[in-house]
Design a protein that fits this description.
By secondary structure, the chain is an alpha/beta fold.
């Protein structure tokens, strides 16, 4: 027989149990990008894409395993630094995330990928383009953009075939991304019949390019091709003008941004081109609507990869739905075989985890902004 105090405790316990039974299941999903440093604007752009994807998923009250799931974003800053990347990757594993979208850079994505693989946690990069990232034999590693074999090939061929360059100079920032892209550019230039008259490099912190450019100027290149991010490409292009180097300029996706235009200042001209690992937003099935929603929520324009971050996060959540489980072991096979109509287009992966049918867009500065020139597949 219950006393009054025991009855109160029993009722309270029953109510507490009932509350737990009906509470949403919280599932943590990680996002990593450089939220500080020279390319923080790109990292925050990526994070914004993940925020939208999580909000959209939660609005749908998705049920997995018979219970409504509430997705929680755990965002980390790797500062575009490989060592920091491994630290925050382990931090996410320890926090119990069930999947990760990131990292932004190839140089951070590659070392972090081993940590996620060892933990059995799927990782999708929305922007890492170095081929090595998906060639390590990890079943947990994916990307939703074209790789540098495709992008470097497009840059090199464009310089020789479209810009009619005979002699080119190639400069990179010595990161896994920049150097990897430059290596592929060099192969493409030579394959197209061009000559590499200079191969120079700085670092991902270099803003004074004068010594390198003085050497490059003496080689009289028709086009300068650069592998690196906008924070270093902007000063490079501005200093080219200062030295009177009137060559064409072609840069990869890391500088195919509005920020590049600001950083380069009066160095920008119609001789400046960039390539983007994906299709133009005008060609994305849901590109215009995504742009509208993005600007309404965040009060700013998309830099580059927010739509790809959105699709990567959505792919993970969709795979969980298909597997009816948030356990990485259960949903990983569904992710590997996924067929999703994303904001950026069809999302499906090959045996290595690379996006199928990856495209590269060539853009030209028109005096105000980057304008689409052609799409290469």
């Amino acid at each position: 027989m219950f006393t009054k105090s025991k009855l109160v405790i029993a009722v309270a316990s029953a109510c507490a149990f009932a509350g737990v039974a009906h509470a949403d299941v919280v599932v943590k999903l990680g996002q990593v990008s450089p939220m500080s440093g020279q390319i923080a604007h790109l990292g925050k752009d990526n994070e914004a894409g993940a925020i939208l994807a999580i909000e959209d998923a939660n609005a749908k009250k998705i049920k997995i395993g018979g219970q409504v799931v509430k997705f929680e974003l755990v965002s980390e800053d790797d500062a575009a630094d490989p060592k920091t990347a491994t630290v925050v990757a382990q931090k996410l594993v320890d926090a119990g995330v069930k999947g990760v979208v990131g990292h932004l850079n190839s140089g951070t994505s590659i070392p972090a990928s081993k940590i996620y693989n060892d933990a059995g946690i799927p990782q999708i990069s929305p922007s890492a383009t170095n081929p090595k990232y998906t060639l390590q034999g990890f079943k947990t590693t994916f990307r939703v953009v074209a790789n540098d074999v495709q992008q470097g090939g497009a840059m090199g061929k464009f310089a020789i075939q479209e810009l009619k360059a005979k002699n080119v100079a190639i400069i990179d920032d010595r990161t896994a991304y920049g150097q990897g892209l430059a290596d592929e550019v060099e192969k493409a230039v030579k394959a197209a019949g061009g000559k590499v008259v200079a191969r120079e490099y700085g670092t991902d912190k270099t803003t004074d390019w004068m010594a390198i450019l003085t050497s490059v100027k003496a080689k009289k290149p028709d086009v300068v091709l650069y592998g690196g991010m906008d924070a270093t490409a902007g000063p490079l292009l501005q200093q080219m003008k200062r030295l009177g180097i009137n060559a064409g300029f072609v840069v990869g996706d890391g500088a195919c941004t509005p920020a590049m235009i600001q950083l380069a200042g009066d160095g920008m001209s119609k001789n400046a081109y960039c390539t983007e690992a994906g299709v133009p937003r005008s060609m994305m099935p849901q590109g215009k609507n995504f742009e509208k929603r993005f600007k309404a929520k965040f009060g700013k324009e998309i830099q580059i990869y927010a739509p790809y971050e959105y699709d990567a996060m959505t792919a993970i959540i969709t795979a969980m739905q298909q597997a009816n489980s948030t356990d990485p072991k259960a949903y990983l096979p569904k992710l590997a075989a996924i067929k999703l109509s994303g904001v950026t287009g069809p999302i499906a992966f090959d045996k290595n985890g690379d996006i199928k049918g990856g495209a590269v867009t060539v853009k030209q500065f028109d005096g105000k902004e980057w304008k689409d020139v052609k799409v290469v597949r």
